[in-house]
Design a protein that fits this description.
This protein is an all-alpha fold and 326 residues long. The chain has a domain of 170 residues: MetI-like (MetI-like fold), CATH 1.10.3720. It is 75% helix and 0% strand. Helix 6 packs across helix 8, helix 8 packs antiparallel against helix 11 and helix 13 crosses helix 14. The protein starts with a helix and ends in a 7-residue tail after the last helix.
């Protein structure tokens, strides 16, 4: 993952390095990102320590000697301020610590083993979301106040309001148990990808469709659109070449957190479909008070969210040259 982020960062620097003000913008955003991540790590660390219970509490209490040895091994008997400084020192050196639940396994290894699966699931769901949501929104706006518009928005509203676990249950019931077409769980080949990808991608697709429709309806009344029609251009050419490009700013704004959320793994979907991604580990880490694992996965999500928002800010200039990153 480190080398991927490095390549993206270098490519971004080379791309915008021609203009000094854009490079200054990038440096400023990177500094802001560092402060944001620092604050997030501090808050999560503090909240974990303030929660009742500890990482080695169980229904059957361990002997005091064992608890003392575990606390000494993981330095949980030290003052919280000292624990915090030790964690920051390890974090600066790239050490996310060792899991309390999975003895002997570093958090970085757990993330390296599970993140590729969550990333793969997220990429497929992301492609599905954009492939369905944006065209559906454009078509609905072009057929405004018709049955096609109403039908598309009914489907989009259903996708937004229905919870993911309910959609997952319905898809499993219909396509796995009734029609016997798709496997209900696991992640062992392309046919296993269909149900979790569709479940994860439907809600973002519905939101993208509504955003695209509203934005296109605002742009489609502009003077340059009427001029394009007056020149004899076809409706499809006007919509997808002229209108859509000027309607993408709200879609891009939503895409930043959307991409980060999907690529980091939809935890409930992974648990329902038994996908061997980060979801099961994150849920168990919270349940078991596995401090290093919770912090490591939260840090990963924070970095992805900040990075995706930064990329979206840079894409604003490509979509609308009138926007200046100063």
């Amino acid at each position: 993952m480190t080398w991927v982020l490095t390549v993206i960062f270098i490519a971004g620097v080379l791309y915008i390095g021609i203009k000094k003000h854009l490079l200054a913008f990038l440096v400023k955003r990177c500094l802001e990102a560092a402060v944001t991540i620092f604050v997030i790590v501090t808050l999560i660390f503090s909240l974990l320590r303030l929660m009742p219970g500890g990482p080695f509490d169980a229904e059957k209490a361990l002997p005091p000697e064992v608890m003392a040895n575990l606390a000494a091994k993981y330095k949980l008997d030290a003052p919280i301020s000292e624990q915090y400084l030790n964690y920051l020192n390890k974090l600066i050196h790239g050490d996310l610590g060792e899991s309390y639940k999975y003895i002997g396994r570093p958090v970085s290894q757990i993330i390296a083993d599970t993140f590729p699966v969550s990333f793969q699931l997220g990429i497929y769901a992301l492609i599905l979301s954009f492939a369905i949501g944006i065209p559906l929104g454009v078509i609905a706006a072009s057929k405004h106040n018709t049955w096609l518009d109403s039908s598309a928005m009914f489907v989009a509203m259903s996708g937004v309001t229905l919870p993911s676990f309910l959609v997952a249950a319905l898809l499993i019931l219909i396509f796995s148990f009734k029609l016997n077409l798709l496997p209900p769980a696991l992640w062992e080949g392309p046919i296993y990808y269909v149900l979790p990808v569709v479940t994860l991608g439907l809600r973002p697709a519905a939101i993208l469709a509504r955003l695209t429709r509203a934005s296109v309806l605002d742009v489609i009344r502009a003077d340059f659109v009427r001029t394009a029609y007056a020149k004899g251009l076809s409706q499809r050419l006007v919509l997808f070449k002229h209108v859509l490009k000027n309607s993408l700013i709200p879609v891009l704004t939503y895409s930043g957190p959307l991409i980060a959320d999907i690529l980091s793994g939809a935890f409930i979907i992974e648990v329902i479909f038994a996908v061997p991604g980060m979801g099961r580990h994150l849920i168990l880490s919270v349940t078991n008070r596995d401090y290093p694992l919770v912090l490591g996965m939260s840090l990963l999500f924070s970095v992805m969210l900040v990075l995706c928002n930064l990329i979206v800010d840079l894409l604003y200039v490509l979509v609308d040259p009138r926007i200046k990153l100063t």
